[in-house]
Design a protein that fits this description.
The chain is an alpha+beta fold. The protein contains 4 helices and 8 strands. Strands 1, 2, 3, 4, 5, 6, 7 and 8 form an 8-stranded antiparallel β-sheet that branches. Strand 3 and strand 4 form a beta hairpin.
Length: 209
Amino acid sequence: NAPSDVTRRPRGRPAGSKNKPKPPIVITRDGGTALRSHVMEIAGGCDIRECLTTFATRRQRGVCILSANGTVTNVTLHQSTPPGPVVTLDGRFEILSLSGSFLPPPAPPAASGLTIYLAASQGQVVGGIVAGPLLAYGPVVIMAASFGNAAYERLPLDESEAPPLPPQPPPTRAEIETHTLLTDPFQNMVNSCPLPGENFWGALNRPPF
């Protein structure tokens, strides 16, 4: 009888057995300290400063104003550092620039405020620190970012305060081997003694089987 053929398995992985790609990890919730972007639309007739203060207080998040577009009316400004002269502007003004920040309590009041630059109908440009209600004449759109857990720092820092240590890089392989030799003398002694090779065992007279 002819010997039966032996079926050999092909080498390598079978078709279709490759590692399947893992699904991506999607973060559906931000941390409490994450920076969020906001597009805020304030209706006409509302006080812009009061709306931003209420938003920061109710959400318990700091708000940083980046820019704004729209028209305001009857603006009261400090044109120098308070308590400088206060100027009240009647009429409508186009917002050229709006910046500032609002922090919820118990942050100090000095941490909140607005600075605005306006263009009048005749092309005059005026600006300063908002010192009173800032009424939106029509819809005003504000681009802002909010944040949580802002750290309050007093500068300059105390000279006695030690600076934080810089992060140390991970040890190299050579440093790990050197540390092992210095801390384990027995291992060092064993590594320094040559072990007999296979020829040594072949030189022995083995008894016949």
